[in-house]
User: What shape does this take?
Amino acid sequence: MSNFSVFLVNGRTVTITYTVEDDAGGSQTVTLVRNLDSGAATIALPDRGISQVGISTGDPFWDFLIDNVQFNVR
Assistant: This one.
């Protein structure tokens, strides 16, 4: 796939930094304010040849939601 995007919502009541990365070498890091302050963003990875995407954070109590996942099929 290519041109992956996802709407990422912070599920915590504190500000958290998330990294979204694909197996084609693309990544984006975003800091989202707490969920009560509408901490959310659309993350886009325009790479080609993506077969896997991961979301990570250094917070051991992570919590997030995703919506509106989009991508192009090769």
